Amino acid sequence: MRKITDLQGTFELNNGVQMPYFGLGVYLSKDGNEVINAVKDALDHGYRHIDTAAIYNNEQGVGAGIRESNVDRKDIFLVSKVWNTDQGYDSTLKAFEASLERLGTDYLDLYLIHWPKGEISKETWKAMERLYAEKRVRAIGISNFMKHHIEDLLTTAEIVPMVNQMEFHPYLVQQDLVEFCHKKGIQYEAWSPLMQGNVFDLDVMKQLAAKYGKTIAQLVLRWDLQKGVVTIPKSSKKERIISNADLFDFEISQEDMNLLDGLDRGQRFGPDPDNFDF
């Protein structure tokens, strides 16, 4: 198990960049005050990793939240993603510039291909390799790529992705994919770690949370970190943002880690990377 220390602790990516292993996701956070306040609240509480995407339509608010916080841009790990309709070489470069403009920054810490789109994603990746070479972005990666998508990308890639952001929670562990990414030096990252809220209904979660004197969310997020998986729970409520980060005063036993792993049933709450139409 990699060392889990505090809210600003990091995992090292395959290019040496330190990525905070805990962050704020802003999917479905409305642009304007909602996302501005969420970002400010998170940064003011000690978060240093903010994850957005072009398709979330809230990059402007994220940028405003960063500027209105008391934290320097250089101390924040800022992530965005290129959307499917912008994939391709030239269009990815344009989409990147548009994201920077909306965010009000001149670089990203991590830029991801949001979904695998076959051959065109290879062109997208070439554009991202260029952005990386030009030091416009500190790390590049992928999202929602299964093993065969990664293998296909690697047939033409010059740079191995640094991160793969996947739906990941107790009902969708995909341990073989986690291990494949680990062997390739690709950092695994969880989206939807709380199963879009469904995790709160599980009796086993209620029992374990009671055992550790923690909330169900804290238990699941700690499980992510102990598995070496970066996690970015989404919330726009200040109390939840603070509570979600209260993970560093307990450790889940190996027995209970195995119990949580054993809940895996291959069940998705989001789209299937092998069968989506957007």
Describe the model.
The protein is an alpha/beta fold. The longest helix is centred in the middle third of the chain and has 15 residues. An eight-stranded parallel β-sheet has the order 3-4-5-6-7-8-9-10. A two-stranded antiparallel sheet has the order 1-2. Helices cover 38% and strands 13% of the residues. It has one domain: TIM Barrel (Alpha-Beta Barrel). The model has no long low-confidence stretch (mean pLDDT 97). Helix 1 crosses helix 2. This is Aldo/keto reductase. InterPro entries: AKR, AKR5G, Aldo/ket_reductase_CS, NAD(P)_OxRdtase_dom_sf, NADP_OxRdtase_dom. GO terms for molecular function: oxidoreductase activity, acting on the CH-OH group of donors, NAD or NADP as acceptor.
